[in-house]
C-alpha cells in the first residue's frame, strides 16, 4: 500500500486501494464512507463554507474543521443519537481506526485527498428535518488556495491598506451612504465578492416598511444569510430559506435576534427593534432593544 499524496486527485476506487483491498471494504451511507481494517475513508461531495449548517451537503467550517452532513437518513450504527455516522469514525473507536478524508466539489469526477480527521465527538441530530451532522478536526489545516480550488470559499479584495483607510473615515463625520459604502468594502474583504444574485429583488422585498440601511443590505446581500447571522439571526423580508421574517409588533420593526443570555436555564431572546411613527407612515423614528425573556 502507498501513502496518499496530500491534495492530489484520486478516483474513488484508486483512493480505496491506497489503504486496502476493495474486497475487504464495507461501503456505508451510499458509498460516502468506506470501512477497511484499521481505516475509515470518507469520500464525499462538499459545498461552500457557511456559518449556517446546510441540511444536505458537507462542508469545511474553517480550514481545520470538517462537517460531514448526512443527506438522508442512515442507520449504520447502534448509537441511538449517532446512528447516521459509522462508529469507526467516532470517538468510541478512536484507538482502532485512522480516518482519511477525500472530497470533491459538485460535478467533479475525482476526489482530492485533504488529510486525516480526528474522531468525531460532536454529532448533532434532530427529528425535524436534519438527518445528522458529524464534526471532525482536520490535519493538516486546509490551505486557502486549495479551499478556493474546491469552491469552498470565495476570497475577496485583499487590499488591507485600502480597508484600513476606509475604516479610518468612520472617525470623521459621515453620511448614511458613506457608512454603507464602507460596510460594502468590509463585507467583500472578509466574505468574498458579492454577486448580483446574492441580493433580494424588488419582488422578494414583500415586507413592512424598511429603513433605508436595512433595505440597502437586503438588496446588496440579502441571500448571503451567513454574513449577518450566526448564533444571532437577521430576519428576512419574507419567508426565505425558512428564516424568520420581519414583523411589526407594538409599532416596532423586529429585525434581529440575539441568543446571548439564560434565565433560570431557559433561553433569553434579545430582539432588536425599531419604532415606527404613524405620522410618517412607517418611516423610522427611533430604535431600541427590547428584551423578550420568559418571566421567572
Shape: elongated
Q: Give the CATH architecture of the largest domain.
A: Roll
Biggest β-sheet strands, sense, barrel = 9 strands, mixed
Low-confidence parts lasting 5 or more residues at pLDDT below 50? 261-271, 275-296
Q: How many distinct helices?
A: 6
- Mean pLDDT across every amino acid position: 81
Coarse structural class? alpha+beta
Total discrete domains: 2
Q: How far do the termini sit from each other? A: 63 Å
CATH topology of the largest domain: PUA domain-like
Highest CATH level, the class of the largest domain = Mainly Beta
Number of strands: 14
Helix-strand topology string: EHEEEEEEEEHHHHHEEEEE
Share of residues in strands:
25-35%
Describe the structure.
With 296 residues, this protein is an alpha+beta fold. It is 17% helix and 28% strand. It contains 6 helices and 14 strands. The protein has helices at 12-17, 144-149, 160-168, 176-191, 212-221, 225-228; strands spanning 9-10, 26-28, 33-36, 39-45, 59-62, 65-69, 98-104, 111-117, 133-139, 233-234, 247-249, 252-263, 266-276, 284-292. Helix 3 (160-168) packs antiparallel against helix 4 (176-191). The protein starts with 8 loop residues before the first strand and ends with a strand. 25% of the residues are buried. Mean pLDDT is 81; it is low at 261-271 and 275-296.
